[in-house]
Design a protein that fits this description.
75% of the residues lie in helices and 0% in strands. The chain is mainly α. The longest helix has 28 residues. It is elongated, with a radius of gyration of 17 Å.
Length: 163
């Protein structure tokens, strides 16, 4: 197995997971007052944090160190993403919810591919066999379903509700 390429790959996903975890937490926090979103987004944020921890554990198991520059890049990307115009100057916008859910979907889709890649590699590397990639893939699919359901509601709230 090419350890250098695997290290780069895992660190790229770690940076994305760090950004995604921050985005999920922020989205959940911004929607605490909305009963239609709050339980699902709180659970999603919790699971994404757990998946980030799983990735860190997996990297440790493989002897792959975290690239601090990439981790900073992931953290910074999430923070800079907050600065985008959303139709409101100081408050959370229904458009923010739509776009944040779309970004979360992109991240979870990438994470699903990470788990699939690692599941394939586990056939050759016994260090990976302690991880339940089937369960991680199933959870990613459930997360995508949650995001899609919230997104459909958010689209309605943003574009079909009276202004």
């Amino acid at each position: 197995m090419n350890h250098k390429l695997l290290s780069t790959y895992l660190n790229d996903h770690l940076a994305g997971a760090l950004a995604g975890s921050g985005l999920a937490a922020r989205t959940a926090g911004a929607n605490r007052a909305h009963a239609a979103y709050q339980p699902a987004l709180d659970e999603l944020a919790k699971e994404i944090r757990e998946d980030l921890q799983t990735l860190r554990s997996l990297m440790s198991r493989l002897g792959v160190g975290a690239d601090r520059a990439k981790m900073f890049g992931g953290w910074a990307a999430e923070k800079v993403g907050r600065l985008k115009p959303n139709g409101r100057l100081l408050t959370y916008s229904p458009l923010s919810r739509v776009e944040e859910l779309e970004m979360l979907r992109i991240g979870v889709t990438g994470k699903r591919m990470l788990w699939r890649t690692l599941q394939l590699l586990s056939e050759q590397d016994t260090r990976l066999q302690e991880f339940d990639f089937a369960a991680l893939l199933e959870r990613a699919e459930a997360q995508l379903a949650t995001i899609d359901a919230c997104h459909a509601l958010a689209v309605s709230d943003a574009f079909l509700a009276p202004a």
